[in-house]
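Private note to self, pasted from the team thread so I don't lose it. Backbone tokens:
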């Protein structure tokens, strides 16, 4: 069990994956809500069978995997269906993440939660990766091949930067190169190792 959990938040394109990848190279276990959300609907998982029962086989692609884009389009304008889907998925996503945190063997674990709207109760400390909206838009457009309006629309649905920064214990500003980002992550790592050790000593 990781006795110390650092929650990682940030808007789309801010650099959460880049930050968590770097922590991972330091041997830190990463538990990512987006990854968990994909894992619970893998072929053979009970959640996928429930979704197919509910929406029909039209939500599957030719290979029998969930077509997430199709599913999104089905629930997009339909709050009742969206709630149904959330009720089917959220308990499973949370259970999987709980198991992954329980199994973590690193001194501390990073919990990536892109939907964090407040301090994540599972975390001892919150790290926010922050970047200007202009840079965020550019990086999102380049990565996801979306246009500026689409990138802005996604951001408009997310928590704004100030609200996120208000609950941060630590902030990484991702306004430089990838090397700069790695250096900022590496500088935080010993702090978290020490905090985890201090927490363990108090048990
Ligand atoms: P998030 O996980 O928060 O959505 P990512 O870590 O995927 O963000 O970063 C968004 C995009 O920007 C990715 O393509 C990533 O490679 C790139 N990126 C992240 N940080 C930097 C940086 N400091 N310089 C240049 N590109 C970056």
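Design output:
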């Amino acid at each position: 069990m990781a006795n110390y959990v650092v929650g990682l938040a940030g808007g789309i394109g801010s650099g959460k994956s880049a930050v968590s990848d770097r922590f991972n190279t330091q041997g830190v276990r990463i538990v990512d809500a987006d990854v968990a959300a994909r894992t619970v609907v893998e072929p053979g998982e009970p959640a996928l069978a429930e979704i197919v029962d509910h929406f029909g086989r039209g939500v599957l692609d030719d290979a029998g995997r969930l077509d997430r884009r199709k599913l999104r389009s089905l629930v997009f304008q339909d709050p009742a269906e969206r709630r149904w889907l959330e009720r089917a998925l959220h308990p499973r996503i949370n259970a999987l993440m709980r198991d992954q945190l329980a199994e973590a063997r690193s001194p501390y674990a990073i919990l990536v939660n892109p939907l964090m709207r407040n301090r994540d109760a599972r975390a001892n400390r919150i790290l926010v990766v922050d970047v200007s909206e202009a840079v965020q838009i550019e990086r999102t457009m380049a990565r996801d091949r979306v246009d500026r309006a689409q990138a802005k629309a996604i951001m408009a649905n997310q928590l704004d930067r100030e609200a996120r920064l208000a609950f941060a214990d630590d902030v990484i500003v991702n306004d430089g190169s990838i090397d700069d980002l790695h250096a900022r992550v590496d500088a935080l790592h010993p702090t978290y190792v020490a905090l985890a050790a201090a927490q363990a000593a108090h048990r």
